[in-house]
Amino acid sequence: MAAHPAAFSFDIEDWFHSEFVPGAVRRESKESVVERGTGRILDLLRATRSRATFFLLGDVVREHPALLRRIAEEGHEIASHGLDHQPLWRLDAGGLARQLEEFRRLVERVLGQFPVIGYRAPSFSLDRSTAWALDVLRDQGYAYDSSIFPARVKLYGVPDAPVGIYRPARDDLARHDPNGTLVEFPVAVGTAGPLRLPVAGGFYLRALPFSIFRLVLGRVRRRRPIALYLHPRECAPEAVRLSMGAGDSFITYTGLAGVPAKLEALLRLYRSRPMREVLAAEGQLPAR
Ligand SMILES: [Zn+2]
Hints:
Order of helices and strands: EHHEHHEHEHEEEEHHEHHHH
Bound molecules: zinc ion
Strand content: 5-15%
Number of strands: 9
Shape: globular
């Protein structure tokens, strides 16, 4: 039975970066969970001899340079999650370019010259309304993206985008263009006829029964490489709880306690490699 490779990825941001946390609460308290949560992720990766991709915020790199150093030293891929978690919906081409230049400066201040070729937009905010970002990413030296979410959910999504690796066309990012300059590696979404069920990590890993999650993810992996994502705040479940509306609170907090054990189980089930290496093995990127 053929099984495709798995790439685990982690969006390294603090709890107060989430779009679901109300602005007032965000400003009130700045207790950080990023060190504790990321430390736990790194320990789990080491224990399972796995390597992964870390999409870091520039703000986190600035505040926690030792964390960046540890991630790089342990052989993981460093990639960009932007600067301050503003979704692309609130930026323009010039603003994104400045953010990515600043991100690179911050990383190079800690690590020296360092290859960063992967990008994930905050809140999967790359959709038809922000397709201009593809040109900016190419101009800034990025080779792949993992921001187009191929299902429609509350905050984001491009429901007709391909569910496998492809090259988004400039005039319609849901269309494959064999000559496209950027590779898209979408996070895992299962399909059943016209239905799409995200099994990508984050909320879906917390809310779905784990047996269903694993079953659907296993089916996806028999067809194509899978990419998964999680956040440090999901791997440090003892973190502070904030007051917010019932719906947003459910999306933010449901099933938190079980995440570290599920992550460990998944890492033991599917050996993780960085996204860049999976794309290179698939012939989508030049091998380094
Ligand atoms: Zn994020």
